[in-house]
């Protein structure tokens, strides 16, 4: 994949799509973090 086609694809992405992408990444990060903390609290198996 060339850089030009990649730039064209990112340009086609609307701002709300970027927002959803970042929101999804943040949600997954918080979910895994809280799960990791819960594992530490209860103790590793």
Topology, please?
Blueprint: H1 3-12, H2 15-42
Transmembrane segments: 20-41
Keywords: Membrane, Transmembrane, Transmembrane helix
Organism: Marinomonas rhodophyticola
Name the shape in a single word.
elongated
What structural category characterises the helix and strand content? mainly alpha
Rg: 17 Å
Fraction in helix: over 70%
The structural domain count equals 1
Tally of separate helices: 2
Order of helices and strands: HH
Mean pLDDT: 86
Number of strands: 0
N-C termini distance: 44 Å
- Strand percentage, roughly? under 5%
Poorly predicted runs of 5 or more residues: none
Largest sheet descriptor: none
Transmembrane segments: 20-41
Keywords: Membrane, Transmembrane, Transmembrane helix
Protein name: DUF2474 domain-containing protein
Can you offer a commentary on this structure?
The chain has helices spanning 3-12, 15-42. With 45 residues, the chain is mainly alpha-helical. It has one domain. The longest helix has 28 residues, at 15-42. The termini are far apart.
